[in-house]
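Tokens for chain A. Residues wanted.
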């Protein structure tokens, strides 16, 4: 029963988080409900023993941490890392396009989108708008149209006889969603202003100055399969890991200082002020341990679990896997290994994770990409390389990664949550 409740809450989180901004806002609400105190990077921090805190950057990245003890140089941190962004279509600044009797939107491809999966879907728009109020203030607000207001229609097979033999999609010409016919009046800035006024009735909007908006599929996440064995949803990569990590941090009062970091921009390399290849985590940890020597001591007594989805063996494409490293859905999280450091796992961090998983009777799988194929990466090597923390890369087995609808196991997430919750309680990681 517990895992059913867990999955219901997961589906709610996925549905309420169409963009990294909304995912961060969703996590903020959960943390506040559990008594976490929000910190501002602009203020002085007063951190107390037994405290629970969180801080956001750019409204799209978040760090939450607990401080049962304040001697971080001796205890280290139990860290869980994930990312808030997913591949998608984002609106261009001058997004309004009028062609051949239709009002459309110009879009940019964000990350490694599986483009053809976005065709013939019921799409909506969400994200952040920055505006000027009638009082002269510049402020930002999140919006979400929620209703399906756009679609990218496919081309009929009669006009593309090679469609089932494989075809490419031109993102400049063929991925522009249709909003309405040209007979209807349409002005994007007026539309955004109306949506702001709908969501924020007390907001006095002078003008929309700029926006960061994304398209998303309105079909809600669901448990699917004959026995509801699978979770089918947009943005499982990597909101699934964000949710699991958050619940682990919120589980029981941590015996050890524990930290969750969920950063934006992983899908495009993480190099930003709020990305894993930026200074966010280092800035926070150095404020908590300002002495340089104690900072290094604390990092070396820490461990990071970098959680990001893994490729399950697809029964229709089995040849894409190494036969000895072919994870199955609902058979446990996957330890990801790569000799070229595309993943940060080493024998020590893997052993600590295996030991914790064994205490929970949770299965462990392993993934290594075929030696004749390229390998993706995660925030794991970036974080480990930036601050020097011992790190393991893990992930829940997934089909259709970077599709508009991805598929994972309905049993895997709860099992990983229990392992990560135990990880936050772990006093000794390794004996040196």
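Reply:
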């Amino acid at each position: 029963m517990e895992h059913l409740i867990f999955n219901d809450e997961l589906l709610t989180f996925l549905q309420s988080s169409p963009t990294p901004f909304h995912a961060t806002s969703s996590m903020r609400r959960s943390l506040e409900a559990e008594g976490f105190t929000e910190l501002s990077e602009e203020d002085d921090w007063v951190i107390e023993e037994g405290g629970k805190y969180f801080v956001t950057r750019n409204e799209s990245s978040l760090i939450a941490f607990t401080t049962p003890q304040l001697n971080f140089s001796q205890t280290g941190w139990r860290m869980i890392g994930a990312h808030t962004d997913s591949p998608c279509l984002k609106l261009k600044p001058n997004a309004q396009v009028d062609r051949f009797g239709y009002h459309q939107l110009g879009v940019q491809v964000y990350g490694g989108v599986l483009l053809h999966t976005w065709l013939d879907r019921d799409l909506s728009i969400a994200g952040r708008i920055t505006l000027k109020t009638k009082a002269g203030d510049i402020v930002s607000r999140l919006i979400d149209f929620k209703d399906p207001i756009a679609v990218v229609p496919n081309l009929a097979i009669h006009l593309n006889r090679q469609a089932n033999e494989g075809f490419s999609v031109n993102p400049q010409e063929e991925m522009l969603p249709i909003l309405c016919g040209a007979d209807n009046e349409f002005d994007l800035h007026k539309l955004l202003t109306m949506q702001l006024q709908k969501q924020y009735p007390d907001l006095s909007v002078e003008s929309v100055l700029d926006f960061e908006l994304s398209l998303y599929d309105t079909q809600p996440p669901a448990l699917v399969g004959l026995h509801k064995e699978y979770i089918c949803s947009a943005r499982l990569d990597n909101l699934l890991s964000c949710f699991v990590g958050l619940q682990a941090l919120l589980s029981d009062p941590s015996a050890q200082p524990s930290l969750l970091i969920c950063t934006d921009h992983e899908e495009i390399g993480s190099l930003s002020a709020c990305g894993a290849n930026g200074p966010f985590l280092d800035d926070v940890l150095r404020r908590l341990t300002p002495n340089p020597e104690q900072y290094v001591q604390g990092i070396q007594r820490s461990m990071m679990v970098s959680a990001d989805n893994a490729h399950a063996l697809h029964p229709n494409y089995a040849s894409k896997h190494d036969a000895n490293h072919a994870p199955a859905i609902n058979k446990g999280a996957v330890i990801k290994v790569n000799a070229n450091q595309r993943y940060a796992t080493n024998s020590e961090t893997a052993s600590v994770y295996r030991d914790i998983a064994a205490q929970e009777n949770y299965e462990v799988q392993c993934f290594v990409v075929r030696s004749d194929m390229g390998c993706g990466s995660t925030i794991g090597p970036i974080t480990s390389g930036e601050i020097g923390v011992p790190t393991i890369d893990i992930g829940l087995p997934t089909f259709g990664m970077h599709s508009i609808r991805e598929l994972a196991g309905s049993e895997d997430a709860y099992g990983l949550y229990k392992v990560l919750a135990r990880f936050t309680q772990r006093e000794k990681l390794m004996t040196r």
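Residues 88-217 form a domain with the Aminopeptidase i, Domain 2 fold (CATH 2.30.250.10). The chain is about 25% helix and 25% strand.
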